[in-house]
């Protein structure tokens, strides 16, 4: 156990009977959790979100303890202090697990049958942060979010100072989750590059991989926060992966986003796997029969014939999890960002891998190494139909402007094709989440506003990687021009 900082909160004193709601603050729920600028995570805002969540938890059962962890963002320790103050005023004892990947916190809370809060902005820039919430049943649903937003809450009490003790139990629980079911020789003879940057699990991953037999080469550790987005890998990180794999003769390279729920895995040549391709391989390795995946994922999932059922959802883990209740048998889901959600317990090597219906970055890596069975990871691509995807985004564009651009494309998709000089026609439109345009030649262009940040995302699919990247680049360039013409980005 370690003492984390010193928090000073005096007595339970309320500033009058004023009632507040979450919409009083510039923090909003997105595709996964609540996000906002760091400056908006005031003590009052943290109090309101914590009080609303505790109220939600009390509807299930008395809430006297709650598990909490954080990522390595510079703003996370202050938000931790605010939340711990709020919890104790509400009669709830925080069990602080330190800096930890989100799935590790979720697994530990599930084991203890306790609710949890993760302080993280995931992959978004360091001037923003966020909160992810877990009831005893797991990640909160959109219905839970609506209940929290509509809750009427007392104004924030005056803060007081107390110690918060750090427990290492959650870390040990996460390591055991995988060392229990995967062979201790899984990585024997393999050199794994670990791109650490500022990932919350950067030290934990070294321990796990070594316990599974790997020689780990730690790379790129950073003491400043690095916003890694696994759906929009930078050119710098693409080049870095190839250089490192050649320089250190790596069998694979592994990294995650800031809170460890989105994986980045590169083969021995330094080529990053697309998240949805990685998820498909993982599901195959685990012998999953039924999948729930967002509409943005590669259509090779269905074309592979590996799965009995593939249900398409809106983008965001709550929508994937929502489908699990409707599916019987072995079930899982994953997103285009690579985060893998295990919807049912799985027997493995005489043990049980417990369900973990929240995004996880580690399971896809372990599963595909097992699937490759000693062969180079690059050979796995031969098992899937030749459908290639690419994605990127325009940053710092207002969500309303993104929606306006998408609406114009929906009204006249042919004008977009003409602007992009694409000599084909529209086959169908899908508005499940944003606008997904399927073309007669088999190409797909998908536009949607990010649910976590002021960004416009574009996904494309084609019969070659070069064509998919071309579609993304030209579409986003057109979006930038349109936004500039309207006084936006």
Quick one: biggest sheet?
Answer: 7 strands, mixed
Regions with pLDDT < 50 over 5+ consecutive residues?
1-16
How many strand units? 29
Envelope shape: globular
Strand-residue fraction?
Answer: 25-35%
In whole angstroms, the N-to-C terminal distance is 48 Å
User: Roughly what percent helix?
Assistant: 25-40%
Rg, Cα atoms, Å = 22 Å
Annotation field: number of helices: 14
The chain-level mean pLDDT equals 92
Structural class by SSE content: alpha+beta
Supply the key terms.
five-stranded mixed β-sheet; 29 strands; disordered N terminus; 14 helices; alpha+beta; seven-stranded mixed β-sheet
Quick description:
The relative contact order is 0.11. This protein is α+β, with helices and mostly antiparallel strands and 489 residues long.
What's the structural blueprint in terms of helices and strands?
Layout: E1 2-4, E2 8-9, E3 19-20, E4 28-29, E5 34-37, H1 43-58, E6 65-70, H2 76-89, E7 93-99, H3 102-112, E8 116-119, E9 128-135, E10 138-139, H4 142-150, E11 153-154, E12 160-161, E13 164-166, H5 169-179, E14 191-197, H6 202-211, E15 215-221, H7 235-247, E16 252-256, E17 263-266, H8 275-285, E18 290-294, H9 300-303, E19 309-313, H10 317-324, E20 331-334, E21 340-342, E22 346-348, E23 351-353, E24 356-360, H11 362-372, E25 388-395, H12 399-411, H13 413-419, E26 426-430, E27 435-439, E28 444-449, E29 455-462, H14 465-485
Parallel strand pairs: 6-7, 6-8, 14-15, 14-16, 18-19, 18-20
Antiparallel strand pairs: 1-13, 2-12, 3-11, 4-5, 5-9, 8-9, 9-10, 16-17, 20-21, 21-24, 22-23, 25-29, 26-27, 27-28, 28-29
Helix pairs in contact: 1-2, 1-4, 3-5, 5-6, 8-11, 12-13
